């Protein structure tokens, strides 16, 4: 019985809450860049000269993200765990002195499931 329960739960990926912080957008001379940190496992993510809808890897390859808006305001974060892929959508609030250099206001949290 214990083995059956363990086998059942081993195949299930549990939802996880993740927070994005330290988000930075720089779009100077047509060379857009974004970078940000995740609240789990000290993971950092970034993309240089990205394409809307493109997939990019974080420094831990189990974590990837898709940029869904030109300045990175909308991001889909994906985490591959136990053979499953969890995903969640983030809306990043930003402000900056000019439209080509913007920083995150506060943090953004979403549940990946």
Automatic annotation (TrEMBL):
UniProt keyword list: Signal
Name of the protein: Cyanovirin-N domain-containing protein
Annotated signal peptide: 1-15
Species this chain originates from: Phaeosphaeria nodorum (strain SN15 / ATCC MYA-4574 / FGSC 10173) (Glume blotch fungus)
Domain of life the protein comes from: Eukaryota
């Amino acid at each position: 019985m214990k083995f059956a329960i363990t086998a059942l739960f081993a195949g299930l990926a549990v939802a996880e809450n993740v927070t994005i912080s330290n988000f930075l957008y720089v779009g100077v001379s047509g060379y857009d860049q974004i970078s940000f940190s995740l609240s789990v496992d000290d993971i950092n993510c970034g993309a240089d000269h990205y394409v809307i809808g493109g997939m990019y890897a974080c420094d831990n390859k189990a974590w990837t993200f898709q940029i869904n808006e030109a300045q990175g305001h909308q991001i889909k974060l994906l985490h591959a765990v136990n053979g499953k892929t969890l995903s969640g959508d983030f809306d990043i609030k930003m402000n900056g002195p000019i439209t080509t250099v913007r920083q995150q206001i506060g943090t953004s949290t979403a549940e990946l499931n």
